[in-house]
Amino acid sequence: MTMRVYLAAAMALAAVPAFASAQTADTPPAAAAAPDYGKPESWLCRPGKVDPCDANQDATIIKADGSRSTEKFSATTDPKFDCFYVYPTVSNDPTPNSDMVAGPEEDSVAAFQAGRFAKYCRVFAPLYRQVTIAALRAKLIGKPDTSDRAMAYHDVKAAWEEYLAYDNHGRGVVLIGHSQGAGILKSLVAKAIEGTPAQQQIISVLIPGTTVAVPEGKDVGGDLQSTPLCHTAKDVGCVVSYVTFRADAPPPANSHFGLVSEPGMVAACVDPAALTGGATTDAYLGAKGAGMSSLPMGPWTTDGAPVTTPFVKVPGLLSTACASTGKVHYLALTIHAQPTDKRTGTIVGDIVYGGMTLRDWGLHLIDMPVVMGNLVELSNLQAKAWLAKHPASPAG
Asked: Which residue spans traverse the membrane (predicted)?
């Protein structure tokens, strides 16, 4: 299983960010009934089956002096809460909307983005008829947009309703998504969760790689009316959203992320590392880099020794902070490399096309990896806070 398939596909999504952030239609597709989510094959990941979320999550820890150790991963055997994950644009199907058959690209992204959350939770990830890479490429070259975003949204909504009816049983749940998946979850919260009993089951909403509009100086009232931004690791029923750029390459005025056109609104930025109290991030980076849309990853250490685990941790190397440049609000990533380090200070993740780095796309490819450990730990801390408020929960 390779992570390169997903990471290459992520560029196509970045090229048309409106698909990631736009609200979806309220009316379901007329001739496209939702898949049967009562069938296990309609799920990419769910408890009780061997699936991509069970993929190897081991990581090589590399310190500044070049020394290495291996962090072995194990999923919890006693999950206290659930995670509901919606994957980003990855489908290589030639049609405008994907089918319901998982290919290597869907398997890869689930392993890359959702598998680590199994450290604490049960992971549910529905297959859905997402807008495909082919549809995005067609739009880029000026062809008519024949994709059906409403179909994608209503598939996820149907999966959510199936999960609530037959799997939740009063448990707390963390919603997790990136890019197209994050945009769909934003719509799901706004249209199908806020103001319903299900809102009480939401531990938090972790949706990097999409723009969540909030009134300037406030944390609720824009895209979401009663789901505020998270401010601490003990906050529940709140949202974490951000888009990542290098601190030394801030977004230009024509940025495709972190920008809201509505007067008085700004893009939300919540730093997961700040919520978990870290001076630096707990990153889990792909050992082979950020895929074909980015520059190749060079050696991790000056001795050129290979890495044999799927992931690499670089303690103390990266830090993040919310920042703004003009009207763009974003998460700024700083690399703290020293000339004497035996560990590389080069972290790939920029989209490169024709030999040029596309600064207006930022680090969309690695929105999650640069703070993955923080996101996972945050989900657990918030779940503990939620359970304290809901002692009658089946997991309480």
From this structure: none
Query: Could you write out the DSSP letters of every residue in 138-191?
Result: HHHTT------HHHHHHHHHHHHHHHIIIIITT--EEEEE-THHHHHHHHHIII
- Residues 42-76 pLDDT 10s: 999 999 989 999 999 999 999 999 999 999 999 99
182 contacts 88 by C-beta, under 8 angstroms: yes
The predicted model scores a pTM of 0.93
Q: What is the pLDDT of residue 141?
A: 84
Task: Describe the crossing of helices 133-140 and 4-14 by its angle, rounded to 10 degrees.
Answer: 40
Task: List, in order, residues 6 or more apart from 365 with CB less than 8 Å away.
Answer: 7, 10, 11, 14, 290, 291, 293, 294, 349, 350, 351
Q: What is the pLDDT of residue 209?
A: 96
pLDDT of residue 26: 54
Cβ distance 209 to 178 under 8 Å? yes
Please classify residue 6 by burial: count the beta carbons closer than 10 Å to its beta carbon, then call 0-12 exposed, 13-18 middle and 19+ buried.
Answer: buried
Confidence of residue 24 (pLDDT cuts 50, 70, 90): very low
Give the start-to-end residue ranges of the domains of the chain.
4-389
Beta bridge partners of 121: 81
**What CA–CA distances, in Å, run from 253 to 174, 244, 260, 267, 360?**
33, 15, 12, 14, 8
Is the Cβ–Cβ distance between 387 and 279 less than 8 Å? no
Instruction: Give the C-alpha separation, 34 to 235, whole Å.
Output: 34
Q: CA 163 → CA 122, 157, 386, distances in Å?
A: 12, 10, 19
Residue 263 CB contacts under 8 Å (≥ 6 apart), including other chains = none
Residue type for position 42: S
**What is the per-residue pLDDT for 395?**
74
Closest CA relative to residue 337, chosen from 248, 272, 275, 242: 248
Cα separation, 123 vs 133, in Å, equals 25
